[in-house]
């Protein structure tokens, strides 16, 4: 099954793929200009890769972000299965992973690595 995960933020949406076995690769993050543009880009990404299931990072701590995330996912009008999965600390873990490798920039790399971590956790829990 082809899986994708997204880590939805207010400025960027991190994206990761798992097309075969349990190999997860981060993709170029989607920069958010507005929610409709971002939703259209996520839909196009999912269609391009023929994704069968979307895993959405979901914060347990913030009800406001939970509401925003669910609203954004509703904008996607998806016909594939969607699963919400705990994302706690994924962004901090992603930042730790890239420290020293690249100069930290707000280009979306951390967001997509966070999406990769979310998808890896999801896959590990499914086994």
Automatic annotation (TrEMBL):
One of its GO terms (molecular function) is nuclease activity. HAMAP family: Nuclease_YqgF. InterPro entries: RNaseH-like_sf, YqgF, YqgF/RNaseH-like_dom, YqgF/RNaseH-like_dom_sf. GO terms for cellular component: cytosol. Belongs to the YqgF HJR family. Keywords: Cytoplasm, Hydrolase, Nuclease, Ribosome biogenesis. It is found in: Cytoplasm. Pfam families: RuvX (PF03652). This is Putative pre-16S rRNA nuclease. It comes from Malaciobacter mytili LMG 24559. NCBIfam families: PRK00109.2-2, RNAse_H_YqgF. Its main location: cytoplasm. Could be a nuclease involved in processing of the 5'-end of pre-16S rRNA. Its EC number is 3.1.-.-. It is an enzyme of class 3 (hydrolase). Residues 1-94 form the YqgF/RNase H-like domain. One of its GO terms (biological process) is rRNA 5'-end processing.
